[in-house]
Every structure is written in structure tokens, then in C-alpha cells.
Amino acid sequence: MKKLLALGLAATIAVAGVGALAGCTEGDGELTVGFIALHDDNSTYDKNFLDAIREACENKGIDADHLIIKTGIPETQECYNAAADLVDQGCDVIFADSFGHESFMLQAAREFPDVEFCHATGTTAHTENVPNFHNAFAHIYQGRYLAGVAAGMKLVEMYEAGDVLDADNFDTDGNIKIGYVGAYPYAEVVSGYTSFFLGARSVVEEETLISVSMEVTYTSSWYDLQAENDAARLLISRGAALISQHADSMGAPNACEDAGVPNVSYNGSTAASCPDTYIVSSRINWVPYFEYMIDCVANGETIDTDWKGTLETGSVVLTELGGAAAEGTAEKLAEVEAELRNGTLQVFDCSAFTVNGEHLTSYLADVDTDDAFTPDTEAIEDGVFYESRHRSAPYFDVRIDGITELTEANS
Question: Could you report the per-residue pLDDT of 388-403, keeping only the tens digit for each?
């Protein structure tokens, strides 16, 4: 019996594009999709998901009355309450978009076995064996690497201009300093900033006689406009010549625009607000997954327990280049993307980085997540750390040489 909820639930917003086709059906009735978002369209992270679910529903002919979106749902029991309410409203499949929603989505999946529950960026579906609970993510580390390549092209342009970089923009070893605003020291963030750094460094080292180093600072929040702005300003004050981020507000891009420092954003273009400093953004395109999810439910097919999107599925994309991008960036990105697609380039090739001066030959990753985050799976094969091969969600949490995480002691 579906659980009826009393007062206190977050407001429900029913939205969707109106498709020209008849709506997808499950059995004898039209399929209804539920969506749970941590924030709303003001968050670049949530907006990326929300735009995608609206587009996917429109593409599949699901009308406005059959897409029910709940925004502002925290990573608390309120997520379970929201999921249960969506079940009561007749949803056949429910998706939640934030890591901390997972345990509550899993709780709902166990209670409502006739409804499909999907979640990003989850880590437990492949071990929990709950048939109607599913995780999904994409190889965004490839997109981060490509964004890093675009950053590297800009750094080379600045270096070769001769009068753009100041002495403060170089570390004591003569490397160009860049900065990264991260939300939390989780594997997802570490994987992202490391792949970005490796992409930028590959270009700078190829085109000049120097390299790059990077400082990372954390805001302890996925979305905090002021904290992200302050973090970017701190990095700029410490000499960062370019900033990227894994945080969800406009705080860091706005700080870069104010300071005239080039910026690589995440989850969408900031060109309109930051015309002088925006280079590019990487993002996961969730439309392919949402269309797949809808088709599976409509056709009575099984959704993958742990779905992995790739460049090939159209799930890893870059935005159009901004006005601050260096000349030749588009051509360079096309060249590198081709190498990623055909496998001649591996982002986490262990020969391309060191840890405490040594190349990794073995690394146990935390793939089968437990409360202690115990390392359990060998991640390196033939000299490559294969991120997201054993699970869709990132598990690369290696701290490599050349990157410094700032703390109160060293900032």
C-alpha cells in the first residue's frame, strides 16, 4: 500500500515540454516520471539534470502532467518522503540527482518494489541487489580532461604573450600556477580535478619548456555562492593564472570575471555572465540516460543496475567555446577527443603522473562501498588506472604530484 504523507513535504512542481507524439505508455496507462533535485535551476548542477529530464520527456512524448519535479530536497529523510509522495502520485520511475540522496532512494525502492528508482552519483546499486534500484553516471573524467586541454591552450597563449603572466603566476619551480575550487574531498571531485590538471599539463608541457602546478581548495558545500567566490579569490590572490571548479554556483566564475582571470566552468556555459574570461565547460549530458530509462520502463525492460555513459553514448560533452578560448583550441580538442575515443589516450595512464615521485603499479580502490570506505578492488591494469570500469561512480581518489590541497596550515 502506498504511503500517504501529511504536511511538511516540499512543494511539487509539475513541468515538462509538450511532445507532439502520444505519451510513452506502461501497460494500459501513460508513464509518469518523478524527479528529485537537491537544488533548483539556480544551481548549474541541478539545472543540467532538470534541462535533460524535460528534454527527454518531450522527446518521448510525455506531457506536462506526467513529469513531476520536486526541487530543494535535502539529503535527509525528506528525500524518502519526497520519493514516497511521488509514488502516491502515480510515478512509475523516480530519479534523484544527488549523492546523499542514495540511502533514502534505496529505502524507498525496498518499500515500493513496483516502482523503479534511479540515482546519480550512487555507489551501492551493484552490491545491494535490489532489483528496482539503479545507479547511473558517465565518464566525465574524459570531459574534464578535454576541458583541461582547453585550459592548457589558454595557458600557452598567455605564456607566449610574454606580458600577460606575472611573477606571482609561477611557483618556485617555474611552473604556471592554476587553481581549482572543489566542493568536498570526495573521489568524484578528486577524479575531476586530477583529469583536468592532466589535460592542462599535457598541453603546456608539449608546447613549452615548463609545466603547471595546481592548488585546490574546498568549500564543504555543493552550492555556496559566497564560499565559492571566496575560494576563487583566495586562489587568485595566491597567483593562480586560471581557475576551474567542481562546485555548483556562479561564485567562482564571477570572481574570475571580476579579476580578469580565465575560467573553465562545469555543467554549463557561463559566457553570458563572464564574457571576458569564460573558456569552456564540460558536463554530463543526461538526455541519453533519461531516454533509455523511460524506454525501459515503458517497454517493461530491465534498467541497468549500474549504467555508464561515455563519449560514444553522447553522455560526455563540452559546451561551445567562449570568447576567452585560445586560437586553435577547437582543433586541438577534436584531436584529443579522437584519441580518447579510439583508446590511444588513457586519462589515467600511470606513466603520465607520479605519487610521491613514483609511478603507481597497483592500487586498491573503494568500489564496493562500505561505511569504512575500505579499498577492495584492483583498479590498475596494464599500467592504466581504469576509472569507472568497475562501477559507474568515480573511485579515483589518488593524490598525485603537482597538485596541492590547501588547508588552514598551508593557505
Answer: 999 999 999 999 999 9
Same domain, 205 and 101: no
Domain count for the chain, please give it. 2
Q: Output the pLDDT for position 25.
A: 62
Q: Is the pLDDT of residue 144 over 70?
A: yes
Sign of CA dihedral 297, 302, 305, 308: negative
Indicate the pTM of the whole model.
Answer: 0.92
The conformation of residue 263, written as its DSSP 8-state character, comes to E
Q: Is the pLDDT of residue 12 over 60?
A: no
- Mean of pLDDT over the chain: 93
How far is residue 328 from each of residues 56, 209, 269, 276, measured CA to CA in Å? Answer: 34, 20, 19, 18
Count CB-CB contacts under 10 A for residue 59.
Answer: 16
Residues 16, 313, 147: CA angle, nearest 5 degrees: 95
Grid cell for residue 236: 587568485
Q: How far apart, in whole angstroms, are the C-alpha atoms of residue 105 and residue 240? A: 40
Does 375 map to a domain? no
Using CA atoms in the order 121, 364, 350, 156, what is the torsion angle rounded to 10 degrees?
40
For residue 259, give the CATH number of its domain: 3.40.50.2300
Residue in this structure with the C-alpha cell 577547437, named with its chain if needed? 330
Same domain, 211 and 88: no
